[in-house]
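User: I'm curious whether this sequence folds into something compact or stays loose and floppy. Could you predict its structure so I can see for myself?
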Amino acid sequence: MATAPQSSHSHPQDGSKRDFIVLSATAMAGVGAAATLWPFVDSMNPSADVLAMASIEVNLAPIAEGQEIKVMWRGKPVFIRHRTAKDIDEARAVDVSTLVDPQTDEERVKEGHEQWLVMVGVCTHLGCVPIGNHSGDYDGWFCPCHFSHYDTAGRIRKGPAPKNLIVPEYAFLADDRIKLG
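Assistant: Here's the prediction. I'll summarize afterward.
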């Protein structure tokens, strides 16, 4: 039996060279893909103006009893009302079982600071901004777009809104200063 002549250029097969080249090429492709994708991923981070609004402090001292102010926080209006004793009494006299979204007044304010009501000023029906300053049938807020009425605790009492006005995360830093967010 005859054997085929062997070439004088034959070398033993060494796979380690090829493995190194494949590994290096794969690593470089991964680094290139990451470098290409990073600007797109980074663009999804919140902008500086949004981060600056992540939390704000509000001085409550200038708000007289019975008045309310509107501040902007995270691009949304926030209503802050310095409630009167009458406002608080009206809110606490409501039979919670009759409410569409049952919440007591005590659940919507901070203990020891019941005179301050803080809510996101966006109607829970279609996102309109209700009119405040003791308007509507319940002396609270009224959304003229679809006729939702909120009481002195910001709870939905009449109209198509399914939920109460949202109470944002906030804390009292002092008796006359709060931090939203």
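Summary: The mean pLDDT is 85. The first strand starts at residue 56 and ends at 59.
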